[in-house]
């Protein structure tokens, strides 16, 4: 069967077509190069190990200044602490000997600076005498203390359990030591993706090609980031995020190219020409879509938040490697297995023709139905997205604490025991630092004790040189409660400034609870700049690709709408507690990470769909026909690609980690809305209303 004359195959190959030709010619060399590269990177990363570390420093904030001040003056409160909580229904006084011996053993452990027992301070035992806590001060912040040292503290303390005595441990360091992996999320996502691909192509070999490409890409990227963690600050939660994005994007990119390859085979092209044509068309789409994702991720650097910069660079590198695998590795795989794949594709297409099934018929009919009544379709879709977006207006940023942990964890048990014995605020004390004399510190405690929302304070704890003192203030509300956030702002804005003016001392509100609020406030303050940078650069890139002013503006607005709707769903589920989720604030970096990734991923479908519409527009100059044919040619693959990304992302809801659950749900909802509501309803309606004006570009820009 000879290829019919059409521009896609008869035109001279572009840069991606030439790249495909090279991969085909040197197929075994290209495959060997990828295998050796991934093997070398994996072996190197396993030999060197990883050096993931979190950087939650926020220069210029009160909490960071307080931490630096305590460290500078040798205060023991500069490090994070672990609470060992004891409970005995018969009363803790009878357990004094057991508790004392346990704490003596803890004092001798690595990374432990000080241990203050429950009997040293009457306020450390509840009024009914059944619950008490010891404070173990560590020699650094939670993310700096080796997990094995924290695990030894946990094991040593819990060895005292028995005969009516219950022991639980809390604190950020304990939560970090208890954290598990991603569970079955990755495996479930991969299995679901394979099932969808087999249903799409009717062939296990054809279905495996996109998956193999994605696995090679993700494997190489994870090894590279593990090595890079020795040089750059990369957060310890980066690998599962990379896996999440890498699998979704890797399968997505390879699928877009493979589907175009299949389309060219059905049109009659030989497999080598089909590969080059697919790379010239869909490969160009993948390249620009990948660049958009990378631009969006690098936009996180503009936020200036150390904890996010390493994650953004790592995920951007993952997308870059998956893009390279789709453009180089996939053509080589097609050259090796292309004959078998071609026979299966043509055999299935012949069976479909024999049954009278026309590819894209339903999508063409859908586009026609939307075009007949574009305004009602547009309004209905936009109203639905706005309704989903509405809850995001009450989005409250923060960080999950032990109250969001499974009830089986020791940190959650300690959290519940402290709340039961002393009130919810004991799980998130505010560390208020005074730089001044002892009288200024005493006045600080008096002022805090008379502040609404504070139920207890400790005596001032001086540093080694006596230059600074620390007062712990226990709020009436839990760390995640909105009342605690208001209390932090009240202290900083209304209580401490007049006190400082009267005593001449400097007062700072610090500690983990205040630091979490500072991080959330910093994200909220810098979000507008981040959105402007990402939207501006992405729109500029699309303007260059399509030589149009209105299409980039449309894409930016629709992407913002789908992201807002996804954040609205996250708010309902995780903040309001729908579907049985533990209510609490949304992780502070989730909105910016979802925005960066989804804004880029949405461009995959935008570029893929609009590229096919543009091809038909260039050929026929009929805008309505171009939209129908563009959706008919891409509707099936966009839906399949979206379904794969949805199941990969949604699988991470199975993770025990609350951050990954929010991340997975947000990405899955955004992709679902983008592929179904926006690409299938809003885009055809908007393109019909714009008509030929969609491709307008002012002469000076042209």
TrEMBL record:
Transmembrane region(s): 28-48, 188-207, 214-235, 241-261, 282-305, 311-338, 377-399, 529-550, 557-574, 586-610, 631-653, 665-687
GO cellular component, one term: plasma membrane
Domain SSD, chain residue ranges per copy: 211-336
Keyword S-adenosyl-L-methionine tagged: no
Main location: membrane
Pfam family for this entry, one: MMPL
Record's bilayer topology term: Multi-pass membrane protein
Record carries keyword Transmembrane helix: yes
InterPro entries per UniProt: MMPL_dom (IPR004869), Mycobact_MmpL (IPR050545), SSD (IPR000731)
Alphabetical UniProt keywords: Cell membrane, Membrane, Transmembrane, Transmembrane helix
Places the protein is found: Cell membrane
Signal sequence extent: none
Matches recorded under PANTHER family: MEMBRANE PROTEIN MJ1562-RELATED, MEMBRANE PROTEIN SCO6666-RELATED
Family: Belongs to the resistance-nodulation-cell division (RND) (TC 2.A.6) family. MmpL subfamily.
Official protein name in the record: MMPL domain protein
């Amino acid at each position: 069967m000879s290829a019919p004359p059409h521009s896609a195959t008869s035109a001279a190959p572009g840069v991606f077509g030439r790249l495909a030709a090279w991969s085909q010619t040197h197929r075994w060399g290209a495959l060997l190069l990828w295998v050796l590269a991934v093997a070398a990177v994996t072996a190197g990363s396993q030999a060197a190990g990883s050096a993931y570390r979190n950087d939650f420093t926020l220069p210029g904030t009160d909490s960071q200044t307080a931490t630096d001040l305590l460290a500078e003056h040798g205060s023991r409160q500069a490090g994070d602490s672990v609470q060992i909580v004891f409970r005995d229904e018969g009363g803790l006084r009878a357990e004094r000997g057991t508790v004392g011996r346990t704490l003596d053993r803890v004092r001798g452990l690595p990374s432990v600076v000080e241990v203050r027992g429950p009997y040293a301070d009457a306020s450390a035992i509840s009024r009914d005498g059944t619950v008490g806590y010891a404070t173990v001060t560590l020699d650094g912040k939670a993310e700096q203390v080796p997990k094995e040292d924290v695990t030894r503290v946990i094991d040593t303390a819990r060895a005292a359990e028995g005969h009516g005595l219950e022991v639980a441990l809390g604190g950020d360091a304990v939560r970090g030591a208890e954290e598990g992996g991603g569970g079955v999320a990755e495996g479930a996502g991969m299995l679901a993706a394979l099932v969808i691909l087999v249903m799409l192509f009717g062939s296990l070999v054809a279905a495996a090609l996109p998956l193999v490409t994605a696995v090679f890409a993700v494997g190489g990227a994870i090894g590279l980031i593990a090595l890079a963690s020795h040089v750059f600050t990369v957060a310890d939660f980066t690998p599962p995020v990379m896996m999440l994005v890498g699998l979704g994007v890797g399968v997505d990119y390879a699928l877009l190219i493979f589907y175009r390859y299949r389309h060219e085979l059905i049109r009659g092209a030989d497999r080598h020409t089909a590969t080059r044509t697919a790379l010239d068309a869909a490969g160009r789409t993948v390249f620009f879509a990948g660049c958009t994702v990378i631009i969006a991720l690098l936009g996180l650097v503009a936020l200036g938040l150390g904890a996010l910069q390493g994650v953004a660079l790592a995920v951007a590198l993952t997308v870059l490697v998956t893009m390279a695998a789709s453009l180089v590795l996939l053509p080589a795989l097609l050259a090796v297995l292309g004959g078998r794949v071609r026979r299966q594709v043509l055999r299935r297409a012949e069976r479909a023709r024999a049954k009278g099934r026309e590819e894209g018929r339903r999508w063409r009919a859908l586009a026609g139905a939307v075009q007949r009544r574009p305004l009602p379709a547009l309004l209905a879709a936009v109203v639905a997205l706005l309704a989903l977006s509405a809850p995001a207006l009450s989005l409250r940023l923060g960080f999950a604490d032990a109250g969001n942990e499974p009830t089986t964890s020791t940190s959650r048990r300690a959290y519940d025991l402290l709340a039961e014995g002393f009130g919810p605020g004991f799980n998130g004390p505010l560390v208020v630092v005074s730089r001044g004399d002892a009288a200024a510190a005493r006045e600080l405690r008096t002022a805090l004790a008379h502040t609404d929302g504070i139920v207890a304070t400790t005596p001032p704890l001086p540093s080694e040189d006596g230059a600074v003192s620390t007062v712990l203030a226990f709020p009436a509300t839990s760390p995640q409660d909105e009342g605690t956030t208001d209390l932090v702002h009240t202290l900083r804005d209304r209580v401490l400034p007049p006190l400082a003016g009267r005593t001449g001392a400097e007062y700072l509100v610090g500690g983990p609870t205040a630091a979490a609020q500072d991080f959330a406030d910093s994200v909220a303050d810098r979000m507008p700049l981040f959105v402007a940078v990402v939207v501006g650069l992405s729109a500029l890139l699309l303007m260059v690709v399509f030589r149009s002013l209105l299409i980039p503006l449309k894409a930016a607005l629709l992407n913002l709408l789908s992201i807002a709707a996804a954040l609205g769903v996250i708010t309902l589920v995780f903040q309001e507690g729908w579907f049985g989720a533990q209510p609490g604030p949304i992780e502070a970096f989730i909105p910016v990470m979802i925005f960066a990734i989804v804004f880029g991923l949405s461009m995959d479908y935008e570029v893929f769909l609009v590229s096919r519409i543009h091809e038909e527009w260039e050929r026929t100059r009929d805008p309505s026909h171009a939209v129908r044919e563009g959706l008919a040619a891409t509707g099936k693959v966009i839906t399949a690609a979206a379904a794969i990304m949805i199941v990969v992302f949604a699988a991470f809801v199975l993770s025990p980690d609350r951050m990954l659950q929010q991340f997975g749900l947000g990405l899955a909802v955004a992709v679902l809305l983008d592929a179904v509501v926006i690409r299938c309803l809003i885009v055809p309606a908007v393109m019909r209303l714009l008509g030929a004006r969609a491709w307008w570009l002012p002469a000076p820009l042209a």
